[in-house]
Amino acid sequence: MWIYVFDDSLAGLFCTFMKLLFDLFPVILFFIAYKMYGIYVATAVIIVASALQIGYVYLKHKRVEKIHVITFALILVLGGLTLILQDEAFIKWKPTIVNLGFALVFLGSHYIGQKPIVERMMGQAIRLPANIWIRLSWLWIGFFILSGIVNIYVAYQYDTDTWVNFKLFGLMGMTLVFIVLQGLYISRYMEESDSPAEEQALSDGVEPLNTQKSDVDQQDKQKQSKEF
């Protein structure tokens, strides 16, 4: 599961949904394979699908985020143990381990570095006050912990068929609801960025035109007051 932050526009929602759909590609194939052939074939399918997904990302961007590599490594190890030992418990633990791992990473970023990891990842896309970034980070930490707990609860309290359904529809539903609520929350605090012309002027050491105009208006007012 990756990090999703979007504005409250339809375009932002659509882009976020498409990214989520791409990230869920291996899980969707896992679901289909399970319904047709069972848990062990589905496990092999998700390993191959995840490898293809990583390969596609690398070919497109010429790099792969460490968090994606770690997630794939967990799928490979836990999926491999599931196939070798013929024990489905290993693959069922994967979502919980991943989510709790994310929670620890996000929590650690509050104490290591100057910014929480969610701000480092999304700070170039949106501008938020520092305290809102902290709140957003805590929201993600809580969501990861909740997802991990709910997954392992379903895995051990219900049969495999129910868990597979939950893995796709339950976790995806939880994620979509969280993303929408998060988008509505941060939309109240999003700061407007400077226009390209203003940013270029500032970088060149020249005051933006609106600032210059304001200074001229102020000087005119002072001149008029002196005349009176």
TrEMBL record:
GO cellular component: plasma membrane
Keywords: Cell inner membrane, Cell membrane, Membrane, Transmembrane, Transmembrane helix
Name under which the protein is recorded: Inner membrane-spanning protein YciB
NCBIfam families: ispZ, PRK00259.1-2, PRK00259.1-3
Major localization class: membrane
Function: Plays a role in cell envelope biogenesis, maintenance of cell envelope integrity and membrane homeostasis.
Region (Disordered): 196-228
